[in-house]
Amino acid sequence: MRASHRFVFGLLIFLAAGIGASRLLSRESLAAPAQKSSVAPATQSMVDRGRYLVENVAMCEECHTPRDANGDLDESRRLQGAPIWILPVHPNPNWGMNAPPLAGFGGYTDEQGQEILEKGVGPNGLAVRQPMHIYHMNHADAQAIIAYLRSLPGTYPH
Questions:
Q1: What is the topology classification, in CATH, of domain 46-158?
Q2: For residue 95, what is the DSSP state?
């Protein structure tokens, strides 16, 4: 299929999904009173954006996925947490020795995840430990990453 046809086909599917979702939402809004939530529900496009950021930008898998005896990523335990395989050149008391599990994101609240990704502040109120990068992501990207991680089967309940 030519690229232009794929684009048009994808656009039609996207529009059809949006129309169907808006009809469903309008029916639900008539049936039940609106409830306020501080966290927006994840959309598939949000999850897809989060996947892109996790896999291609932040490269989370490099530290948060265990490695096999050959040093290759063990995809059967993807983002399940792992010992840190790199060491600092000079002694560093702030160096983490384990990367926590991310799949399922059940170990953190959305607010804690946003603090980590937007400000580099961990759940303990301190800066995240190296070798974790201190990210200054925008809020939408942080929410997308959290939505993607929550979509994965993990060691924690959702």
A1: Cytochrome Bc1 Complex; Chain D, domain 2 (1.10.760)
A2: B
